[in-house]
Amino acid sequence: MDYTLVIALEMVRAIAWLVLLSSGLAIIFGMMRIINFAHGEFLMLGGYTVVISTGHGVNEWVAMLVLAPIVVGIFGVIVERLVIQRLYGRILDSLLATWGLSMLMIGGVTMIFGNSVTGVATPLGGMSIGAYQVPRYNFVLIFAAIALLLIIWAVLKFTKAGLIARATMQNPDMSEALGIPTRWVYMATFGIGSAVTGFAGALLAPMTGVVPTMGVNFIAQSFITVITGGASIITGTLAAAGLLGSISQGMTFLTGPVYGDAALLLAALVLLRLLPQGITGRIFKKSL
Amino acid sequence: MSDDYNILTTRGLTMQFGGVTAVDNVDFNLREGELRCLLGPNGAGKSTFFKCLTGQLTPTKGTVTFAGQEITGALTHKIVNLGVGIKTQVPNVFDGVSAYENVRLSARRKHLAPLARELTHATLERCGITHLAKREVGLLSHGQRQLVELAMVLAGEPKLILLDEPAAGMTGDERDRLAQLVLESARSAAVVVVEHDMAFIRQIAKFVTVFNRGAIFREAMIEDIMQDREVQEIYLGKQANAA
Amino acid sequence: MEKSVIRDPGFYVMVGIGLAVMFIAPVMLDLFTIMQFTQYVVLSVFALSLGYIWGFGGILSFGQAAFFGLGAYTFAVASINMGSTTIPMVLAFIIPTIFGAALGYFMFYGRLSDVYLGVVTLVVALIFWKLINHTAGPEYSIGKARLGGFNGIPSIPTLHIPGDTGAWLDPAQMFQVFMAILIIIYIALRFLIASDFGRVSIGIRENETRASLLGYDVRLQKVIVFAIGGGIAGLAGAMWATYQSFIDPNSVSMEMSAKALVWVMAGGVGTLAGPIIGCILLQWLTLKLGTVDVVNSIAVLGAIMMVLVLALPKGIVPTAKMLAMNGWTLWNRRPNRDAVTRKAVKHE
């Protein structure tokens, strides 16, 4: 019984993990149809924000919930202005440019902080379920993922900005024709997507520690989740994270973490063979 | 009409997008060697119908049969390989290469290189664009690109030619040449032309199918269609009066 | 047709330079430089593999290193087990080709394009990298070969003359053999591109819809192009493995894929000379920069990549061609030349 509970909890944590990892990327992809290849390094930047600010005596929760999103969000806006906006309409070029940015960031951060892992203490400690020890922090992750999705949903559904965003997602040309300044929408989108990514990176830092090359460990999972999900931010992310999270976690239980990723990829390939535009490209088309 | 003489038939062809029915239960027959024009106001479902024929869309319901073979929802290249030549609404050409190369790629599909070369030259000649052979297609005018695309369709030696708005963006001279070409091609193949350039239609049309709201509204000779009050009301109204 | 290759002076220039370097370099240069050159040759083959599928098939693979690494590991495992290198070299071409066809089937029959294609290819390479990194334990062995995880596989046999496992090639001979492989692949690709198959690929790159409207099976065509590219990259990987006599997961890393992209971008997409030139130029630059400790090589690679996309999207070779053409036009328009022409006309 306890064991089942622990496994169920691990499943949910794996799904929450994928949601956190990929929400920021999904926002950018849903709105702009580009994948930010420097996504992993944006996560890394969120992690480093926590390390540096707690090192200077900032409360860790403030660092994670407030500072990291702000810092990475601002960074995202700068990147959008300097790089992305020059490449609108050239999707593949924007992928290449963000990949270049990714390497520049890895190299740059290595030059400044060195290539070693900096640990971050996991807050809250553990708790026991029957005979098993579970970190309380898992619940923070699950809660954060749910809260994040709810906030994105509420913003899209009930605010004017959300309405503009939904219009742009449905038909960018039309919304431009209606006088919506798409360029500003894209800038804001990239900023918000980056902020969400920074937040996720901050939350992940205590679990993984931070190191300049940490991004590479997460991008496979987040890229796959986003493109399998398709263009709808919430439904897509949730559906893909749910499906792929359970598959990879199930595989991890059976054979260890290495094949978890491989199973994730294989499942995604089969899915994309059947639904080339992702899950929400065919089903749940009208969803958010 | 017995199906035996029909090169192309659709039965109960229906295409729905979400709640919108763009093509509604269409039974369409085309005899071998026939030249048929499809008319109708914008949004009448002509282009959607066309795309169901070419395999670019898979119809929600109903069947498409070409030369006795069902091709409903088949892949475009398979339909083409059965002997259908297709020209889409937006010019679809290979922009980065020469007009000659464009047409040759079509001719080469069925013939070995030496024969393909001859066929390419002949087709370019036939379409009156021999002087453009070496020019990069991306740099040509819209009308010239249309002619290049038509040459590509003809070089495939199709049994059935489907043309979606071939006269769009053409000058008067180019349009005249196009009309001549379409009439000429109709001697060796069945042709379906979707068009709403009336000047062009008058040059080529004999038997006409009028679409309205996704369904066949009228099928008659062009002279009768021009006189038809109801057709005028739904579509030709202003233009017919003006003429 | 193939005539277009035979008539192209650039083709003879490239092959001529290749042959000259192949025969003269070992005589003129010291051993260290020769080995340095060998490295450029191997990586040029890798660059060609991406240059072909991207420039002449319109397939932008973000994970070309997956094939490079697969070829390298195939060669390593096979040659350690067999003790010979001839068949492993062939296997290093065939297995990545098959893998490319299988992956291509999923991608192109699923009609993935643009972003999706880029992401899938990248992720495949990434997961391959992760898997290999985790094979450090002794339980991960294939026959006599231990995969070694992040430690890599050491003591990979040097190439020998086919049939005679004792006749190892010395570095100069190895250089010449690799140079020959590079030249052969270059020639083969030039002819493939000029063939009907190649022209259809170019047509697909230009306009997929039109290609299928002419009756060509776009999906199959792309799978074949992608598989050929995979095979060539695999061969490059095998050359890399035997040249270094060592292979580790770095050969599958994102950095390796990125390097190939940067070489092709720098040299110019849509040419075959470009990727080779881009590869040699940038590898030489990396070597020079490598001696400066302060600058991180990954940061430099990233910066070059961004600059190329933003400032020189066409690449060096096409840009140089364009400049040369403009220069030629300007030259022709010189006023006194016009005057000369006019005079000539008058005299007639």
From TrEMBL, chain A:
A Gene Ontology BP annotation from the UniProt entry: amino acid transport
Topology in the lipid bilayer is annotated as: Multi-pass membrane protein
Q: Which InterPro entries does this one have?
A: ABC_transp_permease (IPR001851), BCAA_transport_permease (IPR052157)
Residue ranges annotated as transmembrane are 12-35, 61-84, 96-117, 137-156, 184-206, 218-244, 256-275
Q: Where, subcellularly, is it found?
A: Cell membrane
Tell me yes or no: is Transport among this UniProt entry's keywords.
Answer: yes
| UniProt key word Ribonucleoprotein | no
Main localization of the protein described in the UniProt heading: membrane
What are the entry keywords?
Amino-acid transport, Cell membrane, Membrane, Transmembrane, Transmembrane helix, Transport
- Tell me the first and last residues of the signal peptide: none
Q: Which family does the similarity line name? A: Belongs to the binding-protein-dependent transport system permease family. LivHM subfamily.
Q: What is this protein called?
A: Urea ABC transporter
Automatic annotation (TrEMBL), chain B:
Lineage top rank: taxon: Bacteria
* GO-annotated cellular components: plasma membrane
Q: Output one GO MF annotation.
A: ATP binding
Has UniProt tagged this entry with the keyword Ion transport? no
SMART domains, per the entry: AAA (SM00382)
Pfam families according to UniProt: ABC_tran
Q: Which PANTHER family match?
A: CONSERVED COMPONENT OF ABC TRANSPORTER FOR NATURAL AMINO ACIDS-RELATED, HIGH-AFFINITY BRANCHED-CHAIN AMINO ACID TRANSPORT ATP-BINDING PROTEIN
**Name of the protein in question:** Urea ABC transporter
* Source organism: Puniceibacterium antarcticum
UniProtKB/TrEMBL annotation, chain C:
- Principal place where this protein is found? membrane
As for subcellular location, the record says: Cell membrane
- Signal sequence span is none
Task: Give the domain of life.
Answer: Bacteria
Q: Which GO terms describe its molecular function?
A: branched-chain amino acid transmembrane transporter activity
Membrane-related topology note? Multi-pass membrane protein
Transmembrane intervals: 12-33, 40-67, 87-108, 115-132, 174-193, 223-241, 261-282, 294-312
Arranged from A to Z, the UniProt key words for this protein are:
Cell membrane, Membrane, Transmembrane, Transmembrane helix
Is Membrane given among the entry's keywords?
Answer: yes
Q: Which GO CC terms are listed, alphabetically? A: plasma membrane
A Pfam family this protein belongs to? Answer: BPD_transp_2
Is Transmembrane helix set as a keyword in this record?
A: yes
Q: Which PANTHER family match?
A: ABC TRANSPORTER ATP-BINDING PROTEIN (PTHR30482:SF17), HIGH-AFFINITY BRANCHED-CHAIN AMINO ACID TRANSPORT SYSTEM PERMEASE (PTHR30482)
| The name this protein goes by in its record | Urea ABC transporter
> What species was this sequence derived from?
Puniceibacterium antarcticum
